[in-house]
């Protein structure tokens, strides 16, 4: 069963940063690898579901002209707003199982980052969320997914299963990624158009 707002309210009642996103070198290293894996230097319009306290948000905001960052806990959104200094970020109370019209707007996204959010959904909800993400991604856009690989009793899915489900989506093609014992990262693009060009090919280096 997909974890709901009550679960996260209880988690954040234990402290403002219960996942220690600002304290661990593990997180800092992972975030650095995440932004380095983005195949474009700049994006026009990004979406970051599950922004938590805004650590990755701050890094993504430097790569996006506009960024929509979401969470489902009011106190967390307030913490993220206070932490991120940037008029380009719009914080919205929203989750991947909600109506996408609340975040979609008139233009598609060219970047969607699923960082440590997929395993909170059960598999049917995850498949619906990935379908919606692919539908709201412009041709040539980037979908980056990065997730913890170790088993967590409360979570409906493992990180590896999340990435397997994303990889089964017919609208997405994998560009590359990274994996170690702790986390897995995959970069996807839409299967429409010539979006699978590598960074070097796009810049005329090969």
Description:
The chain is α/β, with parallel strands linked by helices and 206 residues long. It has one domain: Vaccinia Virus protein VP39 (Rossmann fold, 3-Layer(aba) Sandwich). Helix content is 33%, strand content 26%. The protein has helices spanning 5-12, 25-37, 55-61, 74-83, 101-104, 123-135, 159-167, 199-202, and strands at 43-48, 64-71, 89-93, 109-115, 137-148, 172-179, 183-190. A 7-stranded mixed sheet has the order 3-2-1-4-5-7-6, sandwiched between helices. The N and C termini lie far apart (47 Å).
Strands, helices and their partners?
Blueprint: H1 5-12, H2 25-37, E1 43-48, H3 55-61, E2 64-71, H4 74-83, E3 89-93, H5 101-104, E4 109-115, H6 123-135, E5 137-148, H7 159-167, E6 172-179, E7 183-190, H8 199-202
Parallel strand pairs: 1-2, 1-4, 2-3, 4-5
Antiparallel strand pairs: 5-7, 6-7
* CATH topology-level fold name: Rossmann fold
CATH superfamily: Vaccinia Virus protein VP39
Largest sheet: 7 strands, mixed
Mean pLDDT across all amino acids: 94
Tally of discrete structural domains: 1
């Amino acid at each position: 069963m997909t974890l709901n707002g009550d679960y996260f309210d209880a988690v954040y009642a234990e402290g403002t940063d219960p996942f220690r996103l600002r304290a661990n070198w593990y997180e800092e290293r992972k975030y650095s690898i995440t932004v380095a894996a983005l195949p474009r230097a700049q994006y026009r319009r990004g979406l970051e579901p599950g922004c938590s306290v805004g650590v990755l948000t701050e890094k993504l905001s430097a790569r996006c002209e506009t960024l929509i960052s979401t969470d489902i806990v009011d106190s967390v959104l307030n913490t993220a707003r206070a932490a991120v200094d940037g008029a380009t970020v719009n914080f919205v109370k929203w989750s991947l199982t909600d109506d996408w019209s609340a975040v979609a707007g008139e233009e598609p996204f060219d970047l969607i980052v699923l960082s440590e959010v997929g395993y909170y959904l059960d598999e049917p909800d995850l498949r619906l969320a990935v379908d919606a993400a692919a539908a709201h991604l412009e041709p040539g856009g980037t979908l980056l997914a990065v997730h913890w690989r170790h088993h967590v009793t409360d979570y409906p899915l493992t990180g590896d299963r999340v990435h397997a489900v994303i990889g089964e989506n017919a609208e997405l093609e994998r560009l590359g990624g990274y994996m170690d014992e702790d986390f897995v990262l995959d970069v996807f693009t839409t299967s429409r158009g010539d979006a699978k060009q590598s960074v070097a090919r796009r810049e005329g280096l090969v």
